[in-house]
Amino acid sequence: MQQIDQSIYIENTYPGVTVGAILFPLGTILIDAPLRAEDARGWLNLLYNLGGKPNRMLVNLDAHPDRTLGARLMECTIIAHQKTAQVFRGRPSVFKGQNAESGSAWETFDDVVGTRWAMPEITFSHKISIHWGEHEVFIEYHAGPAPGGTWVVIPSSKVVFVGDVVLLNQPPFLTNADIPAWIDTLDLLSSNYREYRVVSGRGGIIPQESVKAQQKHLKSILKGLDKLVKRNAPTSDVEHLIPNLLSDLDFPKELQDQYYQRYRHGLFQYYARRYRPGDSSGE
């Protein structure tokens, strides 16, 4: 666990995503949930020992299973964007392990299949604020990696949690992404939040150089997809882009297969959805 400011903590060692917490006198704001039950219990115990209050709220930064499967174990009110809530309404009440080849962290833990989703109870369309102490916290919508992408901004501490907008040496999740909007969001992050400490949803605190690197990587993906579009390539041809994209990242060799599959799944879905609607065969 790392304290990044007074009463603001992150934990970057759990499988799945980087989770955060803001401890206020009137309650605790949780940012995403650990994937595994034992990690969720351990996270709550850590926060309790730091003075965390039983009155707490959880913010889902988007609907990805890696950050939402453990939400029920947080035993608190959940806040999410309206589009995130719509994703939940379209799912079965129990997680059945759909998209089992998406290159996500949950796929390496069989025990998460069968988890009952925790539905958001508070939703917003653009921005809401929470006053649980002397510092104001803003919860904002930002387009890009997923429908309902959300940031948590603490202006007084100059800290911003950005979810999957920036991933540290990981392939982006493209299945439900809007890459042009994502690039615009990164412009906003690099210009308006230059003085902030930026917390990636998969990597912890990142330097501004990582924001630029993420933008450059997304532009490389768009360039490759545009070339496929110009020659009317079948959806299956997106796989040819993967080796060059992986070469841009620095990651442990044991993650090669997982990251290759994340690109394969995400590029296939993105290309079919954006450029070849109805092409589900890959031919």
Give a verbal description of the structure.
With 283 residues, the chain is of the alpha/beta class. The chain has one domain (2-207): Metallo-beta-lactamase, Chain A (4-Layer Sandwich). 31% of the residues lie in helices and 23% in strands. The protein has helices spanning 37-49, 65-68, 82-89, 179-192, 208-230, 242-247, 256-274, and strands at residues 2-5, 8-11, 19-24, 27-31, 56-59, 77-81, 122-124, 127-131, 136-141, 150-154, 159-167, 197-202, 204-206. A seven-stranded mixed sheet has the order 1-2-3-4-5-6-7. The longest helix is centred in the C-terminal third of the chain and has 23 residues, at 208-230. The termini are far apart. 40% of the residues are buried.
Spatial arrangement of strands, main beta sheet: 1-2-3-4-5-6-7
* N-end to C-end Cα span: 47 Å
Rounded Rg: 19 Å
Can you summarize the main beta sheet?
A: 7 strands, mixed
Total of helices: 7
CATH architecture title: 4-Layer Sandwich
Q: How would you sum up the global shape?
A: globular
The H/E string reads EEEEHEHEHEEEEEHEEHHH
Q: Write down the overall mean pLDDT.
A: 91
Class in CATH? Alpha Beta
How many domains? The number is 1
Structural class: alpha/beta
Name the helicity range. 25-40%
Number of strands: 13
Q: What is the CATH T-level topology? A: Metallo-beta-lactamase, Chain A
The CATH superfamily bears the name Ribonuclease Z/Hydroxyacylglutathione hydrolase-like
